[in-house]
Each structure stands twice: as C-alpha cells, then as structure tokens.
Amino acid sequence: PKTILLKDYQPPKYKVADVHLDIRIFAGKTLVTATTRFTKNHDGAEPLVLNGERLKLVSVAINGAATTNYTVDDKTLTIPHPGNEFTTVIETEICPEENTALEGLYMSGGNYCTQCEAEGFRTITYFPDRPDVMTIFTTRVEGDKKTCPVLLSNGNLIEDGDCGDGRHYAIWHDPFPKPCYLFALVAGDLVHIRDSFTTMSGRIVDLRIYVRAGDENQCDWAMESLKRSMEWDEKTYGREYQLDRFNIVAVSDFNMGAMENTSLNIFNTALVLARPETATDMDFERVEGVIAHEYFHNWTGNRVTCRDWFQLSLKEGLTVFRDQEFTADMNSRGVKRIDDVVRLRNMQFPEDAGPMAHPIRPDNYIEINNFYTLTVYEKGAEVIRMQHTLLGDDKYRKATDLYFDRYDGMAVTCDDFLQCMQDSSGVDLSQFKLWYSQAGTPEVTAEGHYDAAAKTYHLTLSQTVPPTPGQPDKKPMHIPVMVGLVGPNGHDLDVTPPPSVIPAKAGIHTNQTMDSGLRRNDEKGVSYLLELKDSKQTFTFKNVAVKPVPSILRGFSAPVKLHTNLSDDDYRFLMVHDSDGFNRWESGQILALRMMGRMIDTVESGGAAVTDPAFIDSYGLMLDQANASNADRALMARALSLPDLAIIAQQRKIVDPDTIFTVRRRVLHDLAARYRDQIQAIYDSCNTPTTYSNDAESAGRRALKNVCLRLLMNGPNPPVSLARQQYESANNMTDRVAALSVLAETDGADRDAVFADFFKRFEQYPLVIDKWFSLQASAPIPSTLDRIATLKDHPAFSLLNPNRVRSLFAAFAMNNPVCFHAKDGRGYDILTNAIIALNTKNPQIAARLLGPLREWRRYTPDRQAKMKAALERILAQENLSPDVFEIVSKTLK
Ligand code: HT7
Ligand code: ZN
C-alpha cells in the first residue's frame, strides 16, 4: 500500500461548480447518476482523475455526448484533458446490501444510509474525493414507497412526489458549498420526533430526529441537547445555524459515534437513544456531548473545512474543545476536566508513547481511517485549550470570529487557524506551532526553592520531549503552566509574580456563563500563568511572606507528564487545601500512585505488599469530606476512586498486569476493611429512595453511592445481597448496571441469576444487550476467558454490528487487562481471531481492535513473545486490508 505524504500536497487540478446526483434505490442494486460541472484549476492540460472504488461503471458522457475515451482501474477513472469548463454525466451501479464495511452507501436495520468521511463517497460515484473540492450538491433520491417512505439528503427539501409503480422521490438542495465527505443520504422506514429552534436572528429551524419505530420515546434528551447546543454556540461563539432543517438519523450499524454531514447528522443509536431505564448517567452525558460535537461541526468542519486529511485536527481538536466546554458549562466544570484528563492519560498518553505515535497534524499515512485517533481528537483539543489559556477569553473569542470571517466557505489548514489566533491577539505563537508537528508527551519537571531571608520563591521548570518514531530529536515546546502558591493556612498567597506574568483568578480563562446559570465555578484563589519555552527556566516570585507549597499545572493547563520534588506530606496538604479542584483531586491520585508503585516494587522483588497506613489515614479525610452534607458528590466519587489499572501500568517500565491488579485490589480491600462503616454510611445517605431525576446533583449522588458499593464489594465479607437488592430495586440503569458490574466479578448463583434476568428484561433493547456482553467480558475473573468463547457464539452476537463487536472484544481487550494478558496467551488468541475474521468484513473495526496489542514491547518477556506472535499471525494473512496492514506493520517495526 502507498504512503501519502503531507509534503506532496497539490491543489486540485479541477474544481467542481456544482453536482446533481440522481440516486435510484432498488432492492439489490442502486443506480447513481452524477452530473458534474468542472472548471480547470491549473495552467496545463492535465487529465481529469476521479476517485472511485468498488463501483460498476455503466456509462460516461462529456458535454452531452457519450464517450469511451477514458481509462479505469480499481481506484480511478481518468479522462484526458476534457477542456476548461465541461460537464460529465457518469452512471454507476452499486450494491449497498452487500456493503459490510459500513462506508459509502450501506444498509443498517433494513434502511439505507451513508458514511462518507473520510473517503467513502468514492464508493458511491466517481468524483474528486478530497476535502478541498467544495461544491453545491443537489440530490434526487428515489425509492420504493413501502420500504423507503423516508428519503433524506443534505440541505433543504425543494421538491418531492410520486413516480408511479409504487415509487417516489425527494429532491434536496444544499446551497452552501461542501466537500463530498459531508454528503449524506438516508432512505428507509423511520419515524421521527420534531421540535424547533429560533436562531438569534429570528429564523425558525425545523429540528427532527429519525429513529426505528418504537424508539421514538428515547429521543427527548437528544432533542433537548441539540437545542442547548444551538443556544450555546450562539452565545459562546456567535455562531448561528444557516438552513431550514436540521435532521438527525440514528442507525444501529455504525463504525464510530456519529457523523456531522451538513444538516443530516447520522448517529450511532448509542449516542441518541437515552431513557433512565435503559441508559446510565454516563450515557446521558455522552449523548449530550456528541450531539453537541456534531452540531458544532456545522461551523468548525463544515462551513470552514480541512484542506486535506493531514489537517483533521483543525476540525476535530477544535470541535472536541468546544464540546468539552459545552459539557463543562452544562454540568460540573471540575468533574468534566477530571474525566477528560483521565481519558487523555488512559488512552492518548500510551498512543503518544507507542509505535503509532504521531503529531496532532500527522505528516504521513497509509489509511486515513487509522488517524481518527485520540491524538488528533483529544490531544488536539488540549492544544486548542492551551491557545485559549494563552490568549484568555476575550482575545480567543475575537480570534475565532476572525477565523470564521476569513475562511467561511473555504478549506484551510491548521496554520491558517493559528495565524488567526496570532493576528487577532498579537500573542506570539511561533514556537507554540511545534505542538502541531512534534509527537510525544512532553515531560515537565518542577523544583521549588524558598529563600526565607529574601522572601522569594524560585520555581525551576524544565522540559524534555521523548523521541517518537521518525522524530528522534525534539525542540523545546511552548508550555503554559498554571501555578499557585499555597500558604500554610491553606490559602493561595498573593505575591509579586515574575516580570510579565499576570495573576489569573481561577476560572478567568473560561467561557462566559450561560443565562441559565448552569456553569459552576466555585473556586477561589490566585494562579499565575508561567510560559515555559526553554529547556530549563527559573521563575522568581517576590514578597513571599511564608514558605508555600506550590500547586503546579492547575486545571491540567498542558498535556504533559509532570514530575515534582513535592513530598507525600505536601500532596496530603494540597489534597485538602488546594483552591484548584483539579489539583486537589490530582494530589490524592499522586499519593495513591506513589504508594502502589512502592507496593508493586516490593511484590516484584519477592516481598508482600502492605498498604501504607498514612495513605489509609488520608483516605479517611476524603471520606469525611464526602460525607459532608454540602459535598460535591460527583467530585468526591472521582476523589475516592483509585487510579485505573492503565494509569498504574504507565508508571512501570515493564508491565505485569497480575501484580498491578493484585496490589490495587489489596489497597481497595484494606480501605474497605478500615472504613466499612463510614463507606456504608455514605452509601446509605446517597441511597435516599426518591423518584428518579437526571439532574447533576442526583447523578452525583448515584456516582458516589456506586463507588461506595464497589469499595464494599472489595472488602471483607462482600455484601452480595446489598448488590443484588440494588440490582433488583433500581429504577434507573445507572444503579442497575453498577450492581450488575460488581456482581459480574463474583462467581456464583447471584451472578448467574442477575445476568439471566438482565438479558430477559432488556432483550428488545440492543444497546442494553451491549452492556450485558461488555460487563461479562470486562469481569477480571478466571471464568471470563471461557465465557467469551460461549458469548461469541451466542445468538445475539454478530460480527457485522460494530457496537456488538466492541461490547465483547474491545471491552475484553481494553477493560480487562488481567484476563486479556492471561499468561497462557488465550486472551491474545481470542482478539487475534476476531481481528482476522473482521479484516475483510469491516477493516475499520478490525484495525481499531489492534489497539491493545500495540504496546507489546512494554509487557513481561513471556507476554511480549506471545503478543508479537499474534501480530505476526495477522500480518501473514492473505488479503490484509490497508487499515490492518498499516497498524500491524508499524507496530512490529
Ligand atoms: N467526523 C466524524 C469522523 C468519522 C466517522 C464517523 C462515523 C463513521 C466513520 C467515520 N470516519 C470518520 C465523526 C466526528 O468526529 O464527529
Ligand atoms: Zn468530530
């Protein structure tokens, strides 16, 4: 397969003035006629080269005359220079019924739908399938009236009618130019719910959510989320929606979460359908966040799009930052930040340290689908967040206004975005640009020194950026480090900062409050924004009356790994007193990590792990805080949770999942043993039998209660009957699933009974059955390996449905390191067989399942050998898709 390089970018040789698509759907075949007006975009007489794959070419005409003057291969259709302005009419035939890759036009649950990003449009018709060719689409869809009563495409509906023979048609026109990856079509038997939104200029937008009949009572939350997103984008970014219609369609067979096709977003049902009985609080938050994300793409991605796929983070990093801020404004800002950082550390940091490490703007790829990564999305969002921090609210907003003004209707680059930030604010971002081209997570070391005589505090920050594939040497980055100095009384000191450093009151760099007043920022304190630019820099604070404890990287102001010379006592102090909620939480996590690191060392050198009594004592302080009547329970649920296995694994040079798991369990056990009564009391106080509500306060109560349940279940005499009772009496999925997940880790009659009950109760709800699979696959008990073998042959399992595949194989390989890394290699075999089976059916999903094998070099030697052998077995397969080939070959390099 060919490697595509950023440096080879050339503007398109031909542009498209407009395109008319006529798509006639028949059972077993779909006929596509594309009428395209081209204009030449170069000086010479180069041929017109169109992309097209898996197409049956029926005919080609130029300027009204049929022609055979073209060549065609399995990837392109080439027509010798047809002139400066000309029209082609190309007829093709495709078979969506046989499309299991779920890219292009395919079928889901008996309905037709499309997925064109990144390069799916070329499987619908021959076209210049690249994002810098933007044009105006008019689409006529025709289908059977009975099987396809609903016919949708992008833009506004301009005509519909009957064709006779039991068939009908609809014509859609999108007046705003867009690249073909944003094209969409849906045809099928769907029902919808409807609402409207009046934009800031008074235009009424017809909002609809289309779903399978029977699911319409699960769409209200998605509709409310959409309206809140529209309001937020107007208030926060001044962005208004431009069309008469905004449609969302939910389909059950979908490779990712959702797709932002102009005015016709297509969603995985998992990110639309939500009712308390079937969706957890986390599901609700994800629905809200993804509805917002896709809506926000209307401006960041659609109206202003990417010049080429190397610029993917231009739209994705920015849109993730926007959706993160939206969620923070709608819920708890502090909790959202913690959750986002946990996700980044759990998943993006390993990617950035592994064989597939790439900058947020990669410079080469074989298969672009492999670059929809946590780096491009989540680290990309951190890079935008840092720009926001460096500029501050007002300048950032002025800079985004400039970006939209300058580039509306255009396909641009990450450099263009950064230039707007710089032009509009005057802030020098020349060194900051390195965040776009250098891969790897920077490591920052902070060392403080207090000079009591001079009343000065010197903070020395140094940085290194680790080598990554193809990038052995790195330059120092421009890193915003938000710092506070906490005095012995627990209050932030107000001191004289180093020259040119402006004190920033906590929360100053956040978006404005919504009218609804939903944003919460109750932090008080003084922080200073230090800009680390050299390999090593010392910042001197003056008039520091007493020796402070520094609180460094407040709010996680940069995506780096931080090392400090702070003692455990310092962290115990910050855990209670830091005015920055993120660093309060972080201090507890660091204490736990340090202690578990020491315990793992002891076990690895043949000793017995003992939980540090000082840690047990400080945990007691947090339990006291959690038990207070005014506690932020959602935040306390996070504070009382130990770092995940994946985070602990990152601290180790060589990973032995068994030892990590055993040590973590030991700590949980000892905490539960010492504090059983307090934990039970918090559980009881959160378990007040009220009617269900999904407000943030009630969700926080449930989160804290379920952390307590898990702790108790890890202690001596696990209260199985309490878990069983919670399972049975739950009036919402959060509580039911929490009970089920702790019971999943037991082996016995209660476990079997609740799993049987759960399946029967929710058999009609595929998204809930996904939970049934994934909870079983995630259980870290020996019987899981046998169970997976049975589950993959269960009548409800299918390799053709990505959600189901994820619920079994991804849950197993990603959430269950103990079983996945079983010493006999059975876990690796299970995953490898699934990847091989999926390689030809759905290459995108097969490639994504490779994630857990990527870090094979970090495991114990016996495991390394088995993981490597698994990768080699995959590489030896015939017909390896470029998706799988790229990841396996780079991983083995
Ligand atoms: N822009 C979309 C990314 C995407 C995708 C979505 C569904 C299926 C396949 C896909 N390939 C790429 C989703 C987003 O980031 O909003
Ligand atoms: Zn996106």
Question: Can you characterise this structure?
Answer:
- The chain is an alpha+beta fold.
- Among the domains are: about 5-190, Immunoglobulin-like, CATH 2.60.40; about 305-435, Orthogonal Bundle (Neutral Protease, domain 2), CATH 1.10.390.10; about 765-893, Peptidase M1, alanyl aminopeptidase, C-terminal domain (Zincin-like fold, Alpha Horseshoe), CATH 1.25.50.
- The protein has 27 helices and 32 strands.
- The strands form eight sheets. Strands 6-5-9-3-2-12-15-14 form an eight-stranded mixed β-sheet, with no helix packed on it.
- The protein is globular, with a radius of gyration of 28 Å.
- It binds (3S)-3-amino-4-(1H-indol-3-yl)butanoic acid and zinc ion.
- (3S)-3-amino-4-(1H-indol-3-yl)butanoic acid binds near residues 115, 117, 255 and 293.
Question: Could you estimate the helical fraction of the residues in percent?
Answer: 25-40%
Kindly provide the radius of gyration, computed on alpha-carbon positions and rounded to a whole number of angstroms. Answer: 28 Å
CATH class of the domain at 4-189: Mainly Beta
Q: What is the terminal-to-terminal distance?
A: 16 Å
Could you list the spans in which at least 5 consecutive residues all have pLDDT below 50? 506-522
How would you sum up the global shape?
A: globular
The main sheet comes to: 8 strands, mixed
Strand arrangement, largest sheet? 6-5-9-3-2-12-15-14
Mean pLDDT: 96
CATH architecture of the domain at 4-189: Sandwich
Total beta strands = 32
**Number of helices, where a helix is a run of at least 4 consecutive DSSP H or I residues:** 27
**Distinct ligands, ions and cofactors found in the model:** (3S)-3-amino-4-(1H-indol-3-yl)butanoic acid, zinc ion
- Structural category: alpha+beta
- Determine the CATH superfamily of the domain at 4-189: tricorn interacting facor f3 domain
CATH fold label of the domain at 4-189: Immunoglobulin-like
The percent range for strand residues is: 15-25%
